[in-house]
């Protein structure tokens, strides 16, 4: 029984051992959940979101992270300590991520160092006591030495230092102490300016301007906390007028390219700063894209003066990656993995969990410790608190592993020294030039400041302007007419020295040297190139730019184009000549005028409009003549029996004849009588006067000029390859760089075509390109600067020409190395020459007076008169036609209204009858009955008067009418005149009994007309007698 019990116990122990081993293995192989904490300022919503974005992007295959974050006031030490305690008790965070502030950095350092908890921060940490950084991992690089070396590079011995915090005061003291100690500057003069409120710093800026008033060059270091507040500080500099050329500012922040410099652009002020992030790096581009997407999704402010700087986000990203890499490394090693899991299990044990309460009067330094039963767990008792905290060696393991981590992060190379500070990092030195920042060097923790470019020796340059024995080395390139080699005449000695050269640039620089009082020597660039990059290495240039960078020359004077790429490495003066890129082609033969060349002075559209105008005027005359009664007339026909005809002079054909005769300045017998027709004629005569004057003047010029028809006339036609013309340019230079890099049409198409035929179209010199144009039989177009194009077009054999408009507005400038003091003096000299118009006189001398070709004004520059040139005349013509038609209608209305007042017919009936007869009736009617013809009612009165005068003046009386047919009833017989009761002014009409004449047969023909003067009707018999007003014969 005992043996059986012993066997059962052994079996039970073995089973327990197996189960325990399985549980241990299962627990060891499971993915552990690691608690971490985060503390952010209440206003740092962007930083909190960036932290969670970083957690999503890192590799967490060996573990899971459980985050507990707190939003608090990082300016309060009590709030920050309470937040740290909250992360440690009862959460048990392995590490804490968070912000730091100048007011709370001491409390954070002491607290996390005593509790052995790593605190990872991208914020500010003081560096005066490196030993206090034991458990603080500072992702932000310290670049105080970089600031000092930049001051040394610029040789600043007198400058102002602007700060706004106690940390800034400490950095100021350290900077001055190290700067004076390492560089032995005994005469160092530094003025400290403390700005209490960076939002309103006008008093401090006024004091700064007053302190530096006596300095010709005013140097200012801007050291503000946080560095982003410089965006509020710089606009005040502009408002105070301190953005002048003599000011040079050095910003100590690490993201100078993110500063809004809109008020400083093109002002001449110098601004130097530091740049940590490389925005050309693919990782940084990806981070920027992800961050912008997150900002849009979360509706955060991520850019602009109040946005969170991207380099802070990058530093936080690198901090998260440092921690996850270190944690992954510890979990991959069996021994450290065991320690981490044991510590995690101990933290989860309720017996080991406590609370932490920090009192307001707690002193973080008053802490004692004692060892618990577990050798890996320690207890710390805060004399100012009421609880204890138990921890392990996890913090020490993590801190050692993180300081040993190396990788390439978003902020560059990430590595740390034993004190938790960044090491082995690089930061760029940037300088504001014109409208953007350009790198001028970089600083590394080991090698110090490295200058990207060769700075000319400032001492030699300065002394050379005062000491006549020092020569300035001037490099140039032979490009007529800017620089020519002098060819001696027969019998003359070979020129030496500077006398070997002549040209526009030579004469210009000789005047500049005389103003500055310097001596110089000129030499030709060895590779005969202007200057271009020869590789991806930014410091390797050929041509004149290369000689400036390699210190083989001090100044480059030539037709050197000012371009952004070159301005990144050298400094240019103001342009002494401006130009654009132009097209040179072979001049085609001139064409003789054709058979119909007389039509060329006016464009096709103008001719069409003239014909349309002629037709419109004809129709206008015709309508006005039909509407107006003044254009109607009665004509007598002497045929037997006599007839009367009603007609108008301005029929449709006559109206067209009148319009055409007026257009060719010929007279006709027709003359309008009505006001409407006369208005039409007046505007047509004015129109023809202007058009004939235009035509005559333009035709005279066309007849004296032979037409020059070019195969292409603009950039678009060159891009399309019209007439098979291929474009080409110099194989190295700014012109080729423009066409091969631009995205603008049609210039991009031209660049692609040149690259396609690069073995045929690229040339090594301007002379070779001009020669290729002359020998290509019109199939090659050379692209070059417009000034050079104009010069070669004036040289024999005068068979090249420029077509199209030059593109762009570039300039030629004098180049100097960056930092050369000669640049400012050269710039002033160029401006003086330009102001005195000396450069214009030199241009006229070398381009116009030395030209070998006769000016040809007939180079196809005349163009046909377009519609836009004579649009006003057409407007007057159309307006005149409209006014004339309106006047004719008013005249029609007036006559019809007067007829209505003299008859008992309504206005509508009179108007409709008259309009129907004028618009759709016959233009003339004949009648064999010797009575008044039936005119339209509005014209009867006028025609009666005309006919009465014709009858009274006629020598032959009108014969009486034939007797009426017998078959007619008496009331149907035609009556010559039947007076009715109420006719005229009397109540009736009857012959007087006392008048013997009245007893005669009253059958004589009579004529009735209306007297306009007396407003009365009057009748006249065929024998000459007239009726009285009452109706009796006179």
UniProtKB/TrEMBL annotation:
The lineage of its organism: Eukaryota, Metazoa, Spiralia, Lophotrochozoa, Platyhelminthes. Residues 1-30 form the signal peptide. Residues 471-849 form the Ionotropic glutamate receptor C-terminal domain. Residues 956-967 have a biased composition (Pro residues). L-glutamate binds at residues 561, 566, 734-735, 785. Residues 968-980 have a biased composition (Low complexity). This is Glutamate receptor. SUPFAM superfamilies: Periplasmic binding protein-like I, Periplasmic binding protein-like II, Voltage-gated potassium channels. Residues 952-999 are annotated as: Disordered. GO terms for cellular component: postsynaptic membrane. InterPro entries: ANF_lig-bd_rcpt, Glu/Gly-bd, Iono_Glu_rcpt_met, Ionotropic_Glu_rcpt, Iontro_rcpt_C, Peripla_BP_I. It is found in: Cell membrane; Postsynaptic cell membrane. The record marks 712 as: Crucial to convey clamshell closure to channel opening. Gene3D superfamilies: 1.10.287.70, 3.40.50.2300, Periplasmic binding protein-like II. Disulfide bonds join 798-853. Its main location: membrane. Residues 481-550 form the Ionotropic glutamate receptor L-glutamate and glycine-binding domain. Keywords: Cell membrane, Disulfide bond, Glycoprotein, Ion channel, Ion transport, Ligand-gated ion channel, Membrane, Postsynaptic cell membrane, Receptor, Signal, Synapse, Transmembrane, Transmembrane helix, Transport. It is a multi-pass membrane protein. GO terms for molecular function: ligand-gated monoatomic ion channel activity; signaling receptor activity. It holds the Pfam family Lig_chan. The chain crosses the membrane at residues 606-625, 684-705, 873-896.
